[in-house]
Amino acid sequence: MMKKLLLFFYFVSSICVASNGEKVLRIYHDADYSNLSESAQAIRMGFLTALDSVDYQIQGYRIKLVEKDHRGNSNRSLLHFKQFLKDKQALLVLGGVHSPPYIKFRDFINQNKALLLVPWAAGGPITRYPSEQNWIFRLSVDDTKAGKVLINYAKAQNCTAPHLLLEDTAWGRSNYDTLLEEFKSRKPNNALPVSWFNWSTKENEARIIIRDIIESDPQCVIFVGNAIEGGEFVKAMASIDKALRLPIVSHWGITAGSFFDIAGDLLASDVSLAVLQSCFSFENKPLTPYAEQVFNRAGALFPKAFAKDGFVKATPGFAHGHDLGKLLIAAAKQVTLTGSMLDNRKQLKQVFESLDIPVQGLVKSYRQPFTRWSEVNDSAHEALTENDLCMGQYQSDGSIKLLLSDQERH
């Protein structure tokens, strides 16, 4: 009887394998689906929209995105990488918003040859592992360039004496270094004051920090933080006497979550705020024919998120996720995929570093977006340059429109 049962289960399992016999490549999406779900979902939708253009298939392999929620916790992110490395069908990891996990565990990622594509996390050190065995590629804002854009914009708004307001994390500290370097290149003898804050800073504490900043008599605040804390600081600024309020020049971390829900009603008349973006927004019309095509494809896939009268939350995540998906598709056409994921990752890494065909994306058309990393070419794994970064402004509906010069409009 037992033998018959074993034969039966073997037969059933064989049928299951045969019926599900398609070849599969899994892509792990290591992101914060809990606290900053808007960004995680935007990245996911952008990446899947790109894959939909090839019916989610590469060389006969079915591509499946595996959502892994690290909840902003670096150790959970490390656990996801360990799970990824044990998965014999896992091709690469698609990253999320937070920089600290990829800075803290950069050595582990590269030493284990875990191919990582980063569509958001902006910390400068992430892609600058000092070795040719550098397995991290980014298509996003790079903080080593963001500092210059933020300082330049502040100066253009007649703010030559800014005060930095930075989150006390590896991401905040890396921004401090680049902001200070850029500021000192212009004003070597001037101080650049800084105030630090922690995650989960509440409005009362934010008010104290804002009042202390105002007492130092700056002309504006340059902010580096995420959506929740950003909302609290905007509310704190709005609570100050109107004559004392300072304009805020913000890194793009605030766009990754519920910032507008927290503080959006204060941006129209109470607090002046401009925010860093890559140079693409669905809100800047008219769209190019390609952007229109992508928007329509995404609308068919995700009708609630792409309602015609609405807007896409955390749009940069969508744009960067989409463009990375297109680069992956182009790179995969130049390799021969095998049953060995380690071999597949090696092939893709080599092709990413030499991809020399034009690939149309939303932010721009890419040609050789990455090259081999070296000490004299430390931006080799950065697909975007300083010229691809713009400032934007929230609209009354919560969308962000780019602040483009006449030259950029044309």
UniProtKB/TrEMBL annotation:
SUPFAM superfamilies: Periplasmic binding protein-like I. InterPro entries: BCAA_transport, Leu-bd, Peripla_BP_I. Residues 1-18 form the signal peptide. Coiled coil: none annotated. The keyword ATP-binding does not apply. Residues 36-244 form the Leucine-binding protein domain. Keywords: Signal. Pfam families: Peripla_BP_6. Belongs to the leucine-binding protein family. This is Branched-chain amino acid transport system substrate-binding protein. The gene is livK.
